[in-house]
Specification:
This protein has about 150 residues and is of the alpha+beta class. Helix content is about 30%, strand content about 25%. It is built from six helices and five strands, in the order βαααβββααβα. Strand 2 and strand 3 form a beta hairpin. It is globular and about 45 Å long.
Length: about 150
């Protein structure tokens, strides 16, 4: 079986964003693979264009991915001010590989990146995976409320 490789991208993931680099900084059409991972396994992220993917990567202070050979199997990113607040975004694992610890690995790696490790509070939003995140130490934000302005 091909081993799983973790890639910690530079802030803004310029190699992935512009050159499609994967493990070992090799061209792997990674942006297309990220788009496919989102389309197939992330209901909230379906239909994102290459331009939108480049913008979300550019604005991310931490980006990590997991690869099995040339296949992108998991992804996550964070934004952070580096001291007060951080938000985890777009944590996704290919459906056929869920339940094997890959989501945990992505989250733990994000939590240990320099831009996230020292912040006071780390937020995330989830629709149906709260139990998974509670296992990692996240708690309901009571008495805070999530407010949304849709455009």
């Amino acid at each position: 079986m091909t081993p799983i490789r973790l890639v910690c991208h530079a802030p803004g993931a310029p190699g992935l964003r512009w050159l499609g680099l994967g493990p070992d900084l090799r061209p792997s059409r990674a942006l297309l693979k990220l788009q496919r991972l989102f389309d197939r396994h992330a209901t909230w992220a379906r239909g994102r264009s290459f331009d939108q993917l480049r913008r979300l990567l550019a604005g991310s202070t931490a980006v990590v991915s997991l690869w099995r050979g040339k296949r992108l199997v998991a992804f996550g990113r964070a934004t952070s001010d580096g001291f007060s607040r951080a938000v985890l975004w777009d944590i996704v694992v290919a459906g056929d590989l869920q339940g094997r610890g890959f989501g945990r690995r992505i989250v733990e790696e994000l939590l240990h990146t320099p831009s996230v490790a020292g912040v006071e509070r780390i937020y995330l939003m989830t629709t149906n995976s709260a139990g998974f995140y509670r296992q990692l130490g996240f708690r309901d934000a009571d008495p805070q409320q999530l407010l949304v302005l849709k455009r």
